[in-house]
Amino acid sequence: MSPDAGPKYLAVREHLRRRVADLPEHTLLPPEPVLCEEYGVSRITLRRAVDGLVADGHLVREQGRGTYVTRPGIRHEYRESFVHRIAGFHSVMTEQGAQVGTTVLGQQVLPVPPAVAAELRLEPADQVVELVRLRSVDGLPNHVVRSFLPAEDYPKAATEDFGHGSLYEFLRREYQADLARARIAVDVGTAGAEEAEVLQVVAGSPLLVVRTTVHDGYGNPLVHSFSRLRPDVSQVEFEVSVDGR
């Protein structure tokens, strides 16, 4: 692998992100030649790393002054609590007083993808409603969520206007769905070109990936979703209860 390959600049950017997080705001970074020597990379690689931190609001460039530390203006936490109820992103953020925006990027009926079939216990010939939404908070893009529901069980999901409101509340309202428990997996991905554009990050930026499968009280899977979140404005929080307490 060449020193300028993608993973190299991503590694430099992540190290710089942790580094500037410990520095006071308005601290100037060392000059580019110093940082290039320190990280053992070319100027192009270093600039790609810094560009990502500028786009995410961790650094600011000023002509004649240099690059200095700043802080993202607003931090919104992505929270889903599964102790007392299953409450989706829209409900939780609205209760916190935030203005939640939704842009529907895709809504269609299609054959179930193999990975989704396993989560929803469907056959390869079954169809699902796929719903893709960009969620924002107070006007800032937060994450892209892709949800899958069995088309036979929830046909109205193919035509419902999801430009506002909660998918979970829709399921409760229209189908009296019993959203009793959820299984969540969290890992890390990177933003593709289209995803980076809607989330307003640099392509290749790290993203948090949250996969959620919601079940009813009998253990039947109802909906499977995966959210891809900007880590600079997101924090996944879990609450755990023992024996329902």
Automatic annotation (TrEMBL):
Gene3D superfamilies referenced in this protein's UniProt entry, alphabetically: Chorismate lyase-like (3.40.1410.10), Winged helix-like DNA-binding domain superfamily/Winged helix DNA-binding domain (1.10.10.10)
Family annotation (Pfam families): GntR (PF00392), UTRA (PF07702)
GO BP term, example: negative regulation of DNA-templated transcription
Family annotation (SUPFAM superfamilies): Chorismate lyase-like, Winged helix' DNA-binding domain
Superkingdom, natural source: Bacteria
CDD domains: WHTH_GntR
Residues in HTH gntR-type domain copies: 6-72
Database matches in InterPro entries: Bact_HTH_transcr_reg, Chorismate_lyase_/UTRA_dom_sf, Tscrpt_reg_HTH_GntR, UTRA, WH-like_DNA-bd_sf, WH_DNA-bd_sf
Molecular-function GO terms, alphabetical: DNA binding; DNA-binding transcription factor activity
Record's keyword terms, sorted: DNA-binding, Transcription, Transcription regulation
Protein name as catalogued: GntR family transcriptional regulator
